[in-house]
Amino acid sequence: MPLNLRVDAKTPNSVGLQWERPLVAGEITAYVIYYMEDGNAPVMSEIVSPPTQFHTVSDLSEGTRYVMEVAARSNNGEGPKSVPQEVRTVDFSKSEA
Fold this sequence. Notes:
Elements: E1 3-11, E2 14-20, E3 28-37, E4 44-48, E5 54-57, E6 65-74, E7 77-78, E8 85-88
Antiparallel strand pairs: 1-2, 2-5, 3-4, 3-6, 6-7, 6-8
């Protein structure tokens, strides 16, 4: 399970994630980011190739809460997901209207 997952709303449509490499038997072949809008299905995913331990998820809805998790895949299969983290994308500024 990837350690110390941190999430940060970067823009109204994107969230940045960063994590630490888990202790696993075997070579990590990919990180899988799982996320869902407002805690509801469907669960969406994106693949990140190691050694990268950060990623920005884009094309999200403005001012919306998301639950994010990361799992590591190795030549032994996919491990457990990280501790879920909630984040809310940035609201568009009312002053821009």
